[in-house]
């Protein structure tokens, strides 16, 4: 739905470029102060596991902030999924979305498909490895207009990993529906298999080279224009 390049070539580099200025500007805010403290704890945990993170000097505010910035850069270089780092990245994106410096991006067929499905009285839900808040920011800031009114529910990995069958069962339970009532679309074969094993109908959408071809899906599409036309 969202091009992988948008995440890895736009969102992540943007957060990396704005990291230092954002921390220096907002470090006095309670939420950012808390994130810096959590990052310090993450750094100590990584050090205890012999991952060799950068040193952290906490004697003065300036040295603490510099240590935090260097540690975040180290985490980003490793493509870390550390929770405090992800929270800090979301705060950076939130500020820039609000200023119009960032806009969401989806494939061109997605907005018309959403509108078509809603006219058909179908409910649209999003399940992503990105946080619910990040999803909402992205769909709210689309150049073609806010898509969030078309979306009934958002889910992230708090319900479980996208490759685990139980995650899809939990989503169905949350919406008080049977898994058989859902059609799940993904560009990842393992996710399609997990959803299908839960009882959901599942389709692989192979748009680009990132989509795995390791196993044959039950149904293969290349665009949302190919499904639910009536």
Task: Give a structural overview.
- With 230 residues, this protein is mainly alpha-helical.
- It has 2 domains: 4-98, Transcription Termination Factor Rho, Rna-binding Domain, Chain A, Domain 1 (Orthogonal Bundle); 110-226, Rossmann fold, CATH 3.40.50.1000.
- 50% of the residues lie in helices and 7% in strands.
- It contains 8 helices and 5 strands.
- It has helices at residues 4-26, 30-48, 61-77, 83-98, 110-119, 132-140, 165-174, 189-198, and strands spanning 125-127, 153-155, 183-186, 201-205, 220-221.
- A 3-stranded parallel beta sheet has the order 3-4-5, covered by helices on one side. It has a two-stranded parallel ribbon with strand order 1-2.
- Helix 2 packs across helix 3 and helix 2 runs antiparallel to helix 4.
- The chain is elongated and about 65 Å long.
- Residues 209-215 have low confidence and may be disordered.
Record keyword descriptors for this entry.
230 residues; Transcription Termination Factor Rho, Rna-binding Domain, Chain A, Domain 1; Rossmann fold; two-stranded parallel ribbon
Helix content: 40-55%
Major beta sheet, specifics? 3 strands, parallel
What is the domain tally? 2
Give the SSE order as H and E letters.
HHHHHEHEHEHEE
CATH architecture of the largest domain: 3-Layer(aba) Sandwich
Task: Tell me, rounded to a whole number, the average pLDDT.
Answer: 90
Q: Over the alpha carbons, how many angstroms does the gyration radius reach?
A: 20 Å
Low-confidence stretches: 209-215
The side-by-side strand order for the widest beta sheet comes to 3-4-5
| Count of DSSP strands | 5
**What fraction of the residues are assigned to beta strands by DSSP?**
5-15%
By helix and strand content, what is the structural category? mainly alpha
Shape: elongated
Highest-level CATH class of the largest domain: Alpha Beta
């Amino acid at each position: 739905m969202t091009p992988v390049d948008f995440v890895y070539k736009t969102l992540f580099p943007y957060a990396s470029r704005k990291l230092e200025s954002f921390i220096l500007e907002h470090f006095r805010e309670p939420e950012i102060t808390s994130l810096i403290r959590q990052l310090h704890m993450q750094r100590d945990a990584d050090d205890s596991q012999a991952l060799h993170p950068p040193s952290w000097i906490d004697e003065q505010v300036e040295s603490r902030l510099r240590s935090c910035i260097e540690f975040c850069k180290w985490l980003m270089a490793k493509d870390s999924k550390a929770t405090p780092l992800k929270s800090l990245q979301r705060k950076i994106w939130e500020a820039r979305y609000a200023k119009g410096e960032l806009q969401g991006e989806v494939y061109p067929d997605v907005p018309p498909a959403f509108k078509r499905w809603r006219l058909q009285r179908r409910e649209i839900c999003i399940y992503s490895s990105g946080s619910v808040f990040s999803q909402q920011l992205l769909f709210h800031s689309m150049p073609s207009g806010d898509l969030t009114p078309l979306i009934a529910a958002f889910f992230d990995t708090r319900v479980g990993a996208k490759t685990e069958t139980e995650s899809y069962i939990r989503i169905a339970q949350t919406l008080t529906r049977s898994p058989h009532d859902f059609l799940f679309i993904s560009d990842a074969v393992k996710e399609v298999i997990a959803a299908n094993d839960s009882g959901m109908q599942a389709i692989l959408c192979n748009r680009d080279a990132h989509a795995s071809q390791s196993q044959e899906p039950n149904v293969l599409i290349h665009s949302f224009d190919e499904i639910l036309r009536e």
